[in-house]
Design a protein that fits this description.
The protein is α+β, with helices and mostly antiparallel strands. It has 3 helices and 3 strands. 37% of the residues lie in helices and 18% in strands. The longest helix is centred in the middle third of the chain and has 13 residues, at 39-51.
């Protein structure tokens, strides 16, 4: 975890307790960092964290009213991805 940038650590921490999406945390990140944080920048951080195995990507299934896991290779095909920290990542 020490090798993550400050930004990636903040994004990871945001997804620790609840599902988060870039649009749900970008404004909070802007306040914390004192600069504008675009959703695309937050999505890129989530992408890096997903490929590192630190967060799991999901897509919300409105019919079933639940989140469905998305494989990292399929992340770019999801229009509104959500993310949740992988608890086992905290033990490393």
């Amino acid at each position: 975890m020490e090798s993550l940038s400050k930004f990636d650590q903040l994004v990871f921490n945001a997804a620790y307790n609840d599902y988060e999406a870039p649009h749900t945390i970008s404004a909070d990140l802007s306040r914390i960092l004192g600069r504008t944080v675009e959703e695309q920048e937050t999505l890129a951080a989530f992408g890096r964290l997903t490929y590192l195995g630190l967060v799991q990507a999901f897509q919300f299934d409105a019919v079933a009213q639940q989140y469905r896991p998305v494989q990292p290779a399929m992340l770019s095909s999801v229009s509104d991805p959500w993310f949740l920290a992988v608890r086992s990542a905290l033990r490393s």
